[in-house]
């Protein structure tokens, strides 16, 4: 694995702070030369990440105050953006019970994991002794460059 750019942030469980994620994804993707449909890819990655973060806030923390870590990593060979989250919310995701929703009769809620799986190439979850771990990966058609990375989101 060859990392081109990376950034780690700690977010509080506050929905209004999710806006910070978009700029970080944009900064990471700016290092990929000749990225076709860059705006669409950025939108899809941000949407999947927002869904994940909202699920962490609503389900792992059950709406309670807390914080979680988001690690962004742009890698090459193959070019991809990897996003990992770590939280110590009290509730774990039960991946054994998750089912693909019936889109002929779609539910009002419960589409977040399905959406993440549609938008990303890899969606992984692990429950650990210290909390919950998620990994999202989007393969990128293009070549990543190791330009200087300047990413300055607001810290929690």
Predict the CATH topology: Heat Shock Protein 90
CATH superfamily: Histidine kinase-like ATPase, C-terminal domain
- How would a crystallographer describe the biggest sheet? 5 strands, antiparallel
The count of helical stretches stands at 3
Instruction: Report the β-strand fraction as a percent range.
Output: 25-35%
Please identify the structural class as seen in this structure: alpha+beta
Radius of gyration: 16 Å
Helical residues, percent: 25-40%
Specify the overall morphology.
Answer: globular
Going across the biggest sheet, name each strand in turn. 1-3-4-6-5
Q: Using DSSP, what is the number of strands?
A: 7
Q: What's the helix-strand series?
A: EHEHEEHEEE
Distance between the termini: 29 Å
Low-confidence stretches: 148-154
What CATH first level would be assigned?
A: Alpha Beta
- What is the typical, i.e. mean, pLDDT? 86
Oligomer: single chain
Proper CATH architecture: 2-Layer Sandwich
List keywords for this structure.
single chain; 27% helix; Heat Shock Protein 90
């Amino acid at each position: 694995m060859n990392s081109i750019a990376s950034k780690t942030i700690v977010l509080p469980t506050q929905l209004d702070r999710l806006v910070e994620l978009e700029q970080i994804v944009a900064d990471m993707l700016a290092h990929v030369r000749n990225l076709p449909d860059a705006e669409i890819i950025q939108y899809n990655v941000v949407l999947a990440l927002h869904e994940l973060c909202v699920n962490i806030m609503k389900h792992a923390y059950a709406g309670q105050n807390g914080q979680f870590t988001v690690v962004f990593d742009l890698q090459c060979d193959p070019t991809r953006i990897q996003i990992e989250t770590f939280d110590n919310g009290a509730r774990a995701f039960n991946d054994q019970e998750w089912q693909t929703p019936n889109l002929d009769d779609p539910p009002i809620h419960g589409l977040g994991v399905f959406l993440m799986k549609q938008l990303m190439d890899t969606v992984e979850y692990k429950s650990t002794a210290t909390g919950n771990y998620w990994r999202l990966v989007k393969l990128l058609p293009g070549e990543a460059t190791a330009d200087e990375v300047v990413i300055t989101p607001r810290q929690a």
